[in-house]
Amino acid sequence: MSTAVSAYERLRAAHLHTVQAALIDHIxxxxxxxxxxxxxxxxxLRALLGYAxxxxxxxxxxxxxxxxxxxxxADLASVPMMTKQDAQNEWDSIVTVNDLDRAQAERxxxxxxxxxYTPGDEQIFSSGGSSGVRGVYVWDWNYYVSAACLAWRVQxxxxxRTQGNGPARLAVLAAGTPPHASTPLFDVPTAAGxxxxxxxxxxxxxxxxxxxxxxxxxxxxxxxxxxxxxxxxASAGELKxxxxxxxTNSEPLLDEDRQAIRDAWSVPVHNLWGSTEIGVxxxxxxxxxxLHVCEDEVVLERVDENGMPVGPDEPAxxxxxxxxxxxxxxxxxxxxxxxxxxxxxxCPCGSAFARVADIGGRRDDDFQYGTITVPASAxxxxxxxxxxVSEYQVTQTVGGADILTVGSPDITTLTAAVVTALRxxxxxxxxxxxxxxxxxxxxxxxxxxxxxxxxxxxG
Length: 459
Ligand SMILES: [Zn+2]
Prior knowledge:
CapK_Type1_Caps_Biosynth; globular; ANL_N_sf; binds zinc ion; GMP Synthetase, Chain A, domain 3; 4-stranded mixed sheet; 9-stranded mixed sheet; ligase activity; 21% strand; single chain; alpha/beta; ligase; Phenylacetate--CoA ligase family protein
């Protein structure tokens, strides 16, 4: 093991102990009343606004009409929306610590051999995200602790209640490598003595299947589509495992995948809605429908297209999120770009945390080449994390793909990287053509971009 990796592992072990300690507090919060939730949320909001106004040049002008001493969620309406472009273009004036800027964050991403911590205990992540626009993010020590607790506290409470039988093993189906935040976020034991095994998903499905069979997990966490596919394999007799709990993330959980998981294993499914910017916005309790909003650490606002809040019965065009735990890179009234529907009725689980319906939206299309399926993620891992690609669109061809990129990538290097990623999926000699363009053509009515365009004639 290299020196850098072992230094990372030692700090990470310390970090995970911080998470385990904080989980006890977080499990207690799950029983809070509305009043307790709102009191905590208001204090956290005032703390964030006061800090951001003092330490972030970007936010200090945006927050000029806000008095952090008395601010409430309703007062956020006077603050402009923050877009993904704002966050990436204004990086250096948003970040609140002196010893970190965008150039240095890019350098860390380019030079690190594995996940790493800065001397200031920050982790730098990058993601193409669902929008396909590349982002660079900084997670400070406490923000990671918050996000990990939000991701796992519901499941951890269930583990305490059931006191499972025998050793627990968590299979973590995630990118497995930097620069994505998903592996550190989900590779977290939630029961005493639980072991974890990270299974990278950027390989052919047969290899994922074999790795999961070998791990014999009692618990699984990962991409909704991958776990759905594993469930179908189990029902077909191709995978013999006996999980007791499943957590899904990173993609919409489609009904067909939820049903496949139910058919295969009849286990509770905790679906998670998160983002690298905010961490974790909401998590399913596996008792009632939808997801419980993590209101103690996140403020969600339903707004119209101009960012003005709408009433509970009025349709919302956008959902703005304010992350209360991210002090180093504050996101305040950030447009997540997801469509969210609130569920007004109390949840059968008894929680006082508000609920939203499962996050909709369609998943990126997989590309089918004969018998080989190449998931959109194979392209996204490469194109979404190249620092010189700001946006891209992938169109399937008979033997490969035509790719349009906005930015200034090194075409030769990028082409080679995409070819390598597709070979890993079992496509032996993919034909990849990459071109640079000024802008991508969006759907005229919705303004949305179809990022992955499969060949039309698929059976
Ligand atoms: Zn519930």
